[in-house]
Specification:
The chain is of the alpha+beta class and 353 residues long. Helices cover 27% and strands 22% of the residues. The strands form two sheets. Strands 1, 2, 3, 4, 7, 8, 9, 10, 11 and 12 form a ten-stranded antiparallel sheet that branches. Strands 5-6 form a two-stranded antiparallel sheet. Helix 1 packs antiparallel against helix 7 and helix 6 crosses helix 8. The chain is globular and about 60 Å long.
Length: 353
């Protein structure tokens, strides 16, 4: 039964990933392949052993999405027309080690699976930096290679990291933009960005390029990371979500005339039109040890009618890497998560596990 459940979860994303890789020449020997990306992630310190190769430390959440109806003019997707759409999600840190200590400055992610009744689902993965300092598969491969762990120090070689910046000057504006981002106190008051661009398709066929962000209703407060507490970000999330439901606005940013759509490293204009597409509410949290998000790949190419991928090449990279990661971890024996059921119970009661 477990194998059948995995097959059901993986079938559609696998077909999409393979189709895009084949169309894009992803299996050619001179291209960046799934195996190459996985090897580079491993050399950069990815733990493996049944965990996701990136964003390895996480927790499952669930709730619902209520559409505002303001995005219906741009997209026929059911999620923009309905209320109380069930959601399964995951908060995570962008680390390859599932037992790494929490750090306020580590990139945080929100991944969602929105499931309208009697309509195709939508999956999205978002990060808290506002822009992605990578342009294509070659940039991604070069970046992972620059993060290779030096056996002598157990850390990436600073010279190799610096060399990546020198040899990829076109990524400098994006990196500088991310360096200026506000570091909030936790997941609940953080903003999460799609990074990649997508195409919304209206009922009449009209197409609109957008990026989106989940913007918190909680006032954003500065981080006050707790030294010595390896799970302080997750403890805070558990406490917050048990204290009250957490909410975000899904804000669509419409590409302006001069915005670059197919390069995620390009910063869009600050005065672009925005549309509040609805409200995400999360009111439950569970450990990945048996939680509902554990076997889900949050593949950004799992899209419903009304949302299409742009020609952004990073979308193909992400989809292919997620699927290869899933196929590998699904065949591996997995240890307990850092955020265990006991930690969730104790943190919700204000205790130490």
């Amino acid at each position: 039964m477990l194998a059948l459940r995995w097959l059901g979860v993986v079938a559609v994303p696998t077909a999409l990933a393979l189709a895009f890789l084949w169309a894009g020449g992803g299996f050619s020997p001179d291209r960046i392949t799934q195996n190459r990306l996985m090897a580079e992630l491993h050399n950069a310190g990815s733990y493996g052993h049944g965990f996701r190769r990136a964003h390895a430390k996480g927790v499952c959440v669930s709730g619902w999405f209520d559409a505002s109806a303001d995005a219906t003019q741009l997209s026929q997707a059911a999620v923009f027309h309905e209320r109380h759409v069930p959601v399964i999600g995951r908060f995570a840190l962008a680390v390859g080690q599932p037992y790494a200590p929490d750090s306020a400055t580590t990139v945080r992610s929100m991944a969602l699976r929105l499931m309208p009744p009697d309509a195709p689902e939508w999956r999205t993965g978002m990060n808290d930096p506002p822009v992605l300092p990578l342009r294509d598969a070659r940039d991604a491969s070069d970046f992972f290679a620059s993060q290779q762990i030096d056996p002598a120090t157990g850390k990436p070689d600073p010279a190799r990291t610096k060399a990546f910046g020198v040899t990829h000057p076109w990524l400098k504006p994006a990196a500088e933009e991310n360096a200026r981002r506000f570091i909030s106190s936790g997941f609940a008051d953080d903003t999460f960005h799609s990074l990649d661009s997508f195409i919304l398709v209206a009922a009449d066929g009209r197409k609109t390029a957008v990026r989106w962000a989940m913007m918190p209703m909680e006032p954003a407060m500065p981080s006050n990371g707790k030294a010595g507490d390896h799970e302080f970000l997750f403890r805070k999330l558990i406490s917050d979500i048990h204290d009250h439901p957490l909410q975000w606005h899904l804000v669509m940013t419409v590409a302006g005339a001069h915005d670059v759509i197919n390069d995620p490293s390009q910063i869009w204009a600050q005065d672009d039109q925005t549309i509040d597409a609805g409200t995400l509410t999360l009111n439950a949290i569970e450990s990945e040890d048996g939680g509902p998000c554990t076997d889900i790949t949050f593949d950004p190419l799992v899209l419903p009618p009304g949302i299409q991928p742009s020609d952004d090449p990073i979308l193909q990279v992400r989809s292919a890497a997620y699927m290869r990661s899933f196929l590998r971890r699904s065949g591996e024996k997995r240890g307990p998560s850092a955020v265990t059921p006991n930690l969730i119970q104790a943190s919700s009661e204000g205790k130490k596990p």
